[in-house]
Amino acid sequence: MSTKPQFTERKYLLVLIFVTFLFLMWGISMTLGDTLNKHFQNVLHISKSRSAYVQLSIFGAYFFMGIPAGLFMKKFGYKAGVLMGLVFYAIGAFLFIPAADAESFTFFRIALFILACGMATLETVAHPFVASLGDQRTSDQRINFAQAFNGVGGIIGPAVGSYFVLKAGQEHSNDLVSVKHLYIIIGFVVAGVALLFSFVKVPKLTDPHVVANDSYAVAGAEDADKSLFKHKHFVFAAIAQLFNVGAQGGTWAFFINYGREIMHLTDEHAGYYFSFSMVMMMIGRFAGTALMRYIKPYKLLSIFAACNIVMCIIVAQGFGWPSFIALLFINFFFSIMFPTIFSLGLKDMGAKTQQASSFIVMGVVGGGLFPLAMGLIANYNVATSYYLPIICYLVIFSFGFSYPRLNKRSA
Predict the structure, then answer these.
(1) How far apart are the first and last CA of the chain?
(2) What's the pLDDT tens digit per position in 198-240?
(3) Which of 29, 167, 244, 349 has its CA 20 to 30 A from that of 183?
(4) 285 near 148, Cβ under 8 Å?
(5) In this predicted model, what pLDDT tens digit does every residue of 351-396 receive, in sequence order?
(6) 6: exposed, middle or buried (C-beta count within 10 Å: 0-12, 13-18, 19+)?
(7) Range 309-324 average pLDDT
(8) What DSSP assignment string belongs to 218-261?
(9) Residue 213 has what DSSP assignment?
């Protein structure tokens, strides 16, 4: 019983590598959306508040697909869920071709919505999938490890977008041709990944959330028929995820605007700094994964949330470089929040794990709603708009702080 649990087992290694690559893929698409946000402002001549509908299209898909993806996964399994997500992802990418030809912001939003339905499906499947590839006691570490590569994708997305879409003076910097070409490439890559994954053999899995250790089986027997929404730690996790992704969506949506208006950078150079902020997030995830070997995940979550409250206050002052550095550090402290909230919410959910995963993914809709509020303030002062995420980090801090009382068995 005292044996230290392994990170994973050899038989799961290939599948873990492949599923981890999926985290990288949707990291690219997520941050590319924030690059498009600024490009659409420039080319389609829309306001900051209207451009925030890009985030609503992306994150709204998570709300729409959360339950259907969970039901599909439960009926057909993890592999089929991944393949369905990749198909939606590729279709959405290819729809950028007619959207660019039509120069229609509405058409782009439809394409983004379908693409994001694929991302939402992948995310609904991938988190419990990764969690099932080993002992539940190391599920936090596996999910944070996989999410670290989501951070790698987050670096690649704005770097690619800044160079191919926002770069001043290049041939298609003032039109949508570069956007079309970029998403044609993405569509073919995603279709290729789907084809390769169709040949991957997934070992028979015993989900550690469903069949836990013997002590849980005895202690949790009275909870076998407990209603999903009577699990307080799950309910608070879903709420915390709503506010967490709201903070993420708002912070990322107006990062390039902050660089342009407060720091007087070009769109391209602000985009490169956005990419560097994703390096900070990746470092934070690797550091967080290591720290969780010594600090309980819920405690580390509270510490990082408190740090981001301080960072937001500094950013909102518009002090120049000190504020801009604080903006970069928001991503470092943000790093562990999504996977940690997700993992804590799924702890000891037993047979309800997949259903709980769907509801937590639906909380991602916060990333579509919160930028709308920030955009209304950013229309007048982009620095002042960064006061709003403080509300989100207070909720996250409260979740981490109260977690031992919410789920005494996992504390």
Answers:
(1) 18
(2) 888 877 765 555 544 444 444 444 454 567 788 888 899 999 9
(3) 244
(4) yes
(5) 777 778 778 877 878 887 888 888 889 888 999 999 999 999 999 9
(6) exposed
(7) 95
(8) HHTGGGTT--GGG-HHHHHHHHHHHHHHHHHHHHHHTHHHHHHH
(9) -
CA atoms within 13 A on the CB side of 410: 28
What residues does each domain of the chain span? Answer: 10-406
CATH number of 10-406: 1.20.1250.20
Residues 29, 61: contact at Cβ < 8 Å?
Answer: no
Return the residue matching tokens 């991302």: 119
In the chain, the largest separation of any two C-alpha atoms, in whole Å, equals 67
For the whole prediction, is pTM greater than 0.85?
no
Burial 197-217 (b: 16+ CB within 10 A, else e): beeeebeebebbbbebeeebe
How many CB atoms neighbour CB 94 within 10 A?
18
Best CA proximity match to 241, nearest among 59, 19, 31 = 59
Question: Please, are residues 68 and 359 in contact by the beta-carbon 8 Å criterion?
Answer: no
Token digits of residue 403: 């977690």
The three-class DSSP label of residue 389 is: helix
Q: Which two tokens stand for residue 345?
A: 């919410």
Nearest to 328 by CA among 245, 251, 250, 392: 251
Whether the per-residue pLDDT at 113 is higher than 90: the answer is yes
Q: What pLDDT does residue 218 have? A: 40
| Type of residue at 124 | T
Shortest CA distance to 205 belongs to which of 56, 381, 9? 9
Under 8 Å between Cβ of 333 and 307 = yes
